[in-house]
Design goal:
Helix content: 40-55%
Largest sheet: 6 strands, parallel
Structural class: alpha/beta
Radius of gyration: 24 Å
Distance between the termini: 80 Å
Bound molecules: uridine-5'-diphosphate-glucuronic acid
């Protein structure tokens, strides 16, 4: 193949297509466009495409709308995949790989796109899988495309897993910890190195299957780290140690590090829950057992219910109780609710007869779609906690962390604050009549409101 074919007139800027405009696809597309590449983002959802054509981001992601506006001259949004794929140099597949009922990854969307590429590609190109896919999927996609392809062109397949986090996705892409390039031959690696030439990050060229494994092994390790520290936090509560002090002490060991040692009510989101289950399923399918990952999943399932279990210390049941919920997204900085603890805790409280008031700075609209009735949505924390018998902090939004804690005492009927994200210092509650019960720490003023 003539390598020069791939470069456009202005040197190393390439014509790139990105099917799938979720967190991975859209952020990748916009960041590549910001570096001067000509990027066409493809999605099946016409309304979403129209919105993006107006320069509006369909997802809540800090910094993305600004970068999108700045890069509009290099961006096209369309539902017409043919026009996008036929003369693309590189096609980044960023479509979803949701969880199937058995925990395995659903590859339907990835194969749909592969089929469209096979039918439409009219020049040599590199197809890059950014979506998280089980080990061996790139091989399957390659055979599938080669079987189905219509034109006599060379279509390469490379793995380039994504390591961005929601809420910091733009930063994580522009300043990536590493760029992993998984290939079976040199040429697609060269092309991807060119694509990422202006990205300041270590570039690692590995076997394609290793690249697929790096993604799962990284996410599952982080999930394991969280479940580990949550178990230690639970033990701290029992034996009278303080998890915040313990993790501070652990983190100074560079081999452990301070990050991802925050205990709470478990990990959620679209990645850790799905990727732990998928790798576990995949290992079983290949006659291996991942006992540590299984344990991480199990610990997380239990951890999600910690606050409701704690609430039972203060109330025998929740009938007619006014419960304030602060935060419903799986973490701050996103409007995403996938696998958020709120989704499983609020129904328990409601079924038990509680009146629920929810405050969340950006997640409320999405939450309303899941729970349109019976929940009162509040525009400020004060409204949510006024007259409440109980307050559950499920997401550590900045507004919660900066909230004047005296107001819990002033506004709540029974100021019992159950903090699933350790937003405050215990000493802040010393001279109050607030019961403050958090994760892995002693409870401040434990007996004030316990029903005798
Ligand atoms: C995660 C990874 O961090 C990214 O590197 C990866 O690219 C991404 O999945 C993906 O596969 O696409 P994300 O799901 O956006 O990113 O969010 P995280 O910031 O990792 O948080 C996940 C969950 O873990 C949240 O519910 C958060 O509250 C929880 N968490 C995180 C803790 O409970 N403790 C911590 O110390 C850190």
């Amino acid at each position: 193949v003539n390598k020069l074919l791939i470069y456009t007139k202005d040197g190393k800027k390439m014509k790139i297509a990105v099917p799938g405009t979720g967190y991975v696809g859209l952020v990748t597309g916009v960041c590549l466009a910001s570096k001067g590449h000509k990027v066409t983002c493809v999605d099946v959802d016409e309304n979403k495409v129209k919105k993006m054509q107006r320069g509006e981001s369909p997802i809540y992601e800090p910094g993305l709308p600004e970068l999108m506006k700045e890069s509009m001259e290099n961006l096209i949004f369309t539902t017409d995949y043919k026009s996008a794929y036929q003369d693309a140099d590189v096609i980044f597949i960023g479509v979803g790989t949701p969880e199937k009922y058995d925990g395995s990854a659903n590859l339907t969307y990835v194969f749909q796109v592969a089929k469209q590429i096979a039918q439409t590609a009219e020049k040599h190109c590199v197809v890059v899988l950014k979506s998280t896919v089980p080990i061996g999927t790139n091989d399957k996609i390659e055979s599938y495309i080669h079987n189905k392809q219509v034109n006599d062109v060379k279509i390469y397949v490379a793995s380039n897993p994504e390591f961005l986090s929601q809420g910091t996705a733009v930063h994580d892409t522009l300043h990536a910890s590493r760029i992993v390039i998984g290939v079976t031959e040199e040429y697609p690696a060269d092309v991807l190195k060119q694509v990422y030439e202006n990205f300041d990050a270590p570039k690692l060229v590995v076997e394609r299957r290793s690249a697929e494994m790096i993604k799962y092994a990284s996410n599952d390790f982080l999930a394991l780290k969280i479940s580990y520290i949550n178990e230690i936090a639970n033990l701290c509560e029992t034996v009278g140690a303080d998890i915040e002090e313990v993790t501070a002490g652990m983190g100074f060991d560079e081999r452990i590090g301070h990050r991802f040692l925050k205990s709470g009510i478990g990990y959620g989101g679209s990645c850790f829950p799905k990727d732990t289950k998928a790798l576990n399923w995949f290992a079983n399918f290949n006659d291996n057992e991942l006992r540590t990952i299984k344990a991480a999943i199990e610990v997380n399932e239990n951890q999600k219910f910690k606050l409701v279990k704690k609430a039972k210390k203060y109330y025998n049941d929740f009938l007619f109780l006014n419960v304030a919920i602060l935060g419903c997204t799986f973490k701050p900085g996103t409007d995403d609710l996938r696998e958020a603890p709120s989704l499983v805790n609020i129904p328990i409280l409601m079924e038990d007869g509680a009146y629920i008031r929810v405050w969340d700075p950006v997640g409320q609209e999405n939450f309303k779609k899941c729970f349109p009735e019976k929940i009162q949505y509040c525009s400020c924390i004060e409204d949510a906690i006024a007259g409440a018998d109980l307050c559950l902090i499920l997401t550590e939004w900045g507004e919660v962390k900066e909230f004047d804690i005296k107001k819990y005492e002033e506004l709540m009927k029974h100021p019992i604050v159950l903090d699933g994200r350790n937003c405050y210092n215990l000493s802040d509650f010393a001279n109050t009549r607030i019961t403050y019960d958090s994760i892995g720490r002693r409870t401040v003023n434990p007996d004030l409101y316990i029903e005798k």
